Amino acid sequence: MLADRASKKEIFGWAMFDFANQAYTLLIITVIYGDLFTRIIVGDVQSDYRLGNLLWSLALSLSYLLVVITGPVCGAIMDFSATRKKFLFASYLLTVIATSLLYFVAPGYVLLGVLLIIVSNYAYAIGESFIASFLPDLGRPEDLGKISGFGWALGYVGGLVATAFALLFLGEVSEENFARIRWVGPFAGVFFLLAAIPTFLWLKERGRPRRLKISGGYVALGLRRVWRTCKSLADYRDLAILMGSIFFAMCGISIIITFTFIYGAQVIGWDEQVRVLMFVVVQITATLGALTFGFLQDRIGAKLTYALTLALWVLAITLIFLTPTLAHWARELLGVNWQAQYVFLVVGVLAGTCLGSTQSAGRALVGLFAPKNKTAELFGFWGLFSKAAAIVGLLGIGLLQMAFGLQASILFCIVLFGLALLVVLGVDEARGRRRAQQVRPGR
Which of 394, 312, 402, 416 is nearest to 357 (CA)? Predict the structure, then answer.
């Protein structure tokens, strides 16, 4: 076993995929393209961009629905055929190609934009599940928190590098600057293409393929194994409860990732320099949060660390909603002329700290509760719950903002993170780890 443990180079190669794919998350979903799509490509300013926001939510929701349908089946096939690395490579190439093609989406080309977002985000999102399935192979159970936190932190560094260059060379999101800002798609695609090369050079495929003894091929095998896992998920009681908590947490996180910069542009009305500062603040605090909480969970337990981040999320969302009010109180009660955009920037410190730490702690818990011979399949379920959550979260916020506006709708996230915290209280970390170790190979 010791000889087969991952080297530091392999761990670094695994983490470089997080470094690479954050260019897609930030440039396309969070910082630039979401704002570009809703305000410029759709551009329904007369209705406060509510149609653009809804179409953005629907496009992402459809892509996540595809992940929900195909993710667990792919995981089962990968476990049996030992082809995780091939599946990862296919998702990587599709992400690069579809993201680069976003260059051709001009104002009014709404359908083309929706289709390319569905394809690119599907490939990116399912690749997240594929890369996560390698985590249990990289170290001892007590080291998974640090390894997961390192990957997430390196991811935020990658996002910081990619977006800093994009903001520097591409400029602001506006109709006047469209000729330059439309290059954000090819830029994100090429960054992902180059930065993920160490992953495919150094990450090992440790599984051994088994002979297929059933009719119908690998798809039939995958469906059967997924159905069997669904029926036996009750045997992994703590993993099942954790998946429920992750579902609610990812509902909220998907909203924050997708709509923070849209919220800043539409509700807060920030300046370009504040938008850039918010990006830097969130990336730095998310990196530090992932690293700090990664080390913390190896000392106080992954469950307690994860629950702490959920409680901090409730506080952060409350402050996001109250940002205009807090700015008003600062002027009236303290005589401080703080604009709402600067209060929003301060709140971003707390939100950024939670962002990486919650996802990292949840991923590490899944790794602790997953038996070795079912890692890809169960991480497929982790991806299923996360992406099903994104569907619910994004459709929920999309419909709520149509009725109540974006600011009031953000309160939906408080309910979601509160439910996630309530559900995870039923998890027994020690029992979940024992159950994972009791499962015999081949079961």
Answer: 312
Of residues 2 and 366, more confidence is placed in 366
Determine the distance from the C-alpha atom of residue 433 to the mean position of all C-alpha atoms in its chain, rounded to a whole number: 25
CB burial string 11-33: b at 16+ within 10 A, e below:
bbbbbbbbbbbbbbbbbbbbbbb
Average pLDDT, the chain: 86
Euclidean distance between CA atoms 338 and 331, whole angstroms:
7
User: Tens digit of pLDDT for each residue in 88-128?
Assistant: 999 999 999 999 999 999 999 999 999 999 999 999 999 98
Query: Reduced to 3 states, what is the DSSP secondary structure of residue 99?
Result: helix
Residue 278 parent element (H or E): helix 272-300
How far apart are the C-alpha atoms of 281 and 276, rounded to whole Å? 9
Query: DSSP assignment, residue 197?
Result: H
3-state secondary structure 356-384: HHHHHHHHHHHHHHCCHHHHHHHHHHHHH
- Computed on alpha carbons and rounded to an integer, the radius of gyration of the chain in Å comes to 21
Centre a 10 Å sphere on the Cβ of residue 399 and count the other Cβ atoms it contains. 14
CA–CA dist 338, 342 (Å, integer):
7
Above 60 in pLDDT, residue 242?
Answer: yes
pTM: 0.80
